[in-house]
Amino acid sequence: MGNIPTKTVMRQCLQWLNVHYGDLFRDYRCKLKTGQAILLFLEATLASRKTLEDIAEHLRVTEWFQDWLNLPSISGAALHRKLEDIPLELFQEIFQTLYQAIAFHYVKKPGLDSVGHLAIIDSSEIRLPPIYGKWAYVSETQNAVKMHTMLVAASHDSVCPGKVVLSTAAVSDQEVATKLMAELNYTYVFDRGYIHYASYQQWALTGIRFVARIKANSKCKIVETRSVTGQSSVILDADVDIVEPKTKEVFRLRLVEYTFVDRKKKLVRIRVLTNRWDLSAKEISNIYKYRWKIELFFRSMKGNMNLKKLYNTKPSAVWNPIYLSLIAYAMVELIRLSTETGETGLFLLRKLLSHADKLLINWKDALVVVKTRTSTGRKRKKKRGRPRKHPEVFKAVHWIIE
Q1: CB atoms closer than 10 angstroms to residue 185
Q2: Contact indicator for 173, 148 with CB cutoff of 8 Å
Q3: Between residues 171 and 35, the one the model is more confident about
Q4: Residue 15 pLDDT > 70, yes or no?
Q5: Which PANTHER family does the record match to this protein (predicted)?
Q6: Residue burial 92-124, b: 16+ Cβ < 10 Å; e: rest
Q7: What pLDDT score does 2 carry?
Q8: Residue 66: C-alpha distances to residues 30, 60, 205, 352 (Å)
């Protein structure tokens, strides 16, 4: 790739990934090389470019980008083909390299209050179109894929996905939960979609710490209760016996119940099971409250990292953009940690985009400026019409990609 004496901010950020990849077979006689394509798609992900034609047009009008990539122009059709052709393993390797660098910073983080580092597990669906998304069929009205995520929360402002499993939406959350649990250093947090007593028993035996929400009607035999005086919203702290449905084995966990008032002013009762007896009931309730961080993460990915809009709906081209969004998120988080700005990732991303084509003199001067409060107002949700129905009969598709 080209060698320019003066660097722009965006070029420095992308160069930080050290992506200079060429495939002897895939790139033979190809105008668009694999490394060039990755940088093009990653810049488009950061800038939320909606279509492949937008990516091609931006390259045509951006001289520094052309010089750096040594690529004067490219067509949307060529980008379409290349997105299908790049191996997913390459994106996974880039993401893992970034996360390892992030994990080095997270080791020094104190965790959340007194509960330590959390690993919050949940999934998010990405809808596919009615016709071209039939390979990921779920029901007559839905085609979708899932991004199952283990989100590491190292502090109140430091969260990053540590492991991701992709699947079609017909795959249940319980099927891939254990694939996301790799380390004993975290306390894993689950919602009601992961209720599986056999897994709870196995985790308790192997020392994997967890806090998992159960349903209001889930049966637990109370063995011993503790006083909850002075623990505000906590209404129950007890040791309970759980019966594993298949083997009928009985094992013991801790049950904590607490209440909170939701946004609709309704009083909600939360019941969680855990194998952490070393914390107070209030601390256990706080752990589950932090589960909301993964909802904010999914919202950020879809709103700021272009995850909601896929450029290509073929199977080989759906998984790659998901990892591109993960790489973009991880890169912004690594920049935030390395520059020690104290700002949020979203704020840093906005400054990165506003200074993208400016010369880089100093990281902090270029990327961190005085924050100003702006508001674009609330966006109204568009009304959706009735989903189109098809007479064909399909079976739900089960794909899992680790």
Answers
A1: 11
A2: yes
A3: 171
A4: no
A5: TRANSPOSASE INSL FOR INSERTION SEQUENCE ELEMENT IS186A-RELATED (PTHR33258)
A6: bebbeebbebbeebbeebebbeebbbbbbbbbb
A7: 38
A8: 17, 8, 57, 19
Per the structure block, which two tokens stand in for 200? 């709870």
**Residues 130, 143 contacting (CB under 8 angstroms):** yes
CB 241 within 8 A of CB 252: yes
Q: Which amino acid does the sequence have at 373? A: R
Q: What crossing angle do the helices spanning 315-339 and 88-106 adopt, rounded to 10°?
A: 20
> Is the CB of residue 323 less than 8 Å from the CB of residue 95?
yes
- pLDDT at position 212, please? 96
C-alpha span between 143 and 312 (Å, rounded): 14
Residue 373 has pLDDT above 70, yes or no: no
Beta bridge partners of 383: none
C-beta atoms surrounding 173 within 10 Å: 20
Higher pLDDT, 253 or 116: 253
Axis crossing angle, helix 315-339 with helix 34-46, rounded to the nearest 10:
70
- What is the token pair recorded at 363? 């990281």
> With contact defined as beta carbons under 8 Å apart, do 38 and 86 qualify?
yes
pLDDT (0 to 100) of residue 387? 62
Tracing tokens 């009607």 back to the chain, one arrives at 217
DSSP conformational letter for 308: S
Residues 39-68 have pLDDT tens digits of 899 889 988 888 999 999 999 998 888 888
Do 100 and 51 contact (CB within 8 A), yes or no?
A: no
Rounded to an integer, the average pLDDT of 177-195 is 89
Domains in the chain: boundaries: 9-88+314-367
